[in-house]
Amino acid sequence: MKDTHPQFHVNCPSRLLFDQIADKWSMMVLKVLDDGPQRFNAIKRQLEGVTQKALTQCLRRLERNGLIERRVITASPVAVEYEITPLGRTLQTPFKALYAWTVQNLPEVDAARAAFDARNGPNSL
Questions:
Q1: For burial by CB atoms within 10 Å, which of 17, 43, 69, 86 has the most?
Q2: What is the pLDDT of residues 71-106, one digit of tens each?
Q3: CB 72 within 8 A of CB 78
Q4: Is the peptide bond before 77 cis (omega within 30 degrees of 0)?
């Protein structure tokens, strides 16, 4: 049988990239940086629940993928600032569409969740 979905192979580069840009912190960091360059702590303050380790890893992945740029500010004290790149900005339209879909369909999703929990119990996942 011919494989019709090679992009789903475990080593497919597009699968790895999708995994890195579609996680919740990456999407939120790109949204935060949409307003302009920000320092690490300013980003962290806007992302309730993110740990320092998780944010550091996320920023490194985004920088490695060319979606953000890390700039050292040599003023005293030395600081680091992050800014979205032109490539990163190309994700804003699909991310905004995904967010709009989420808001628009949340009542229907909540109803589906309640029905699932009623059938299977709230701890069935």
A1: 43
A2: 998 887 888 999 999 999 999 999 889 989 999 999
A3: yes
A4: yes
Tokens of 123: 């701890």
Q: For residue range 32-59, what is the model confidence (pLDDT) as tens digits?
A: 999 999 999 999 999 999 999 999 999 9
User: With helix as H, strand as E and coil as C, how does the chain read?
Assistant: CCCCCHHHCCCCHHHHHHHHHCCHHHHHHHHHHCCCCEEHHHHHHHCCCCCHHHHHHHHHHHHHCCCEEEEEECCCCCEEEEEECHHHHCCHHHHHHHHHHHHHHHHHHHHHHHHHHHHHCCCCC
What is d(CA 8, CA 113) in angstroms, rounded to the nearest whole number? Answer: 27
For 95, counting Cβ atoms within 10 Å of its Cβ (0-12 exposed, 13-18 middle, 19+ buried), the class is: middle
Chain-centroid distance of CA 107 in Å reads 23
Amino acid at 72: V
Whether the pLDDT of residue 125 is over 90: the answer is: no
Q: Which amino acid is at 6?
A: P
Q: Please state, in angstroms and rounded to a whole number, the distance separating the CA atoms of residues 68 and 27.
A: 12
Residues 46/32, Cβ–Cβ less than 8 Å: yes
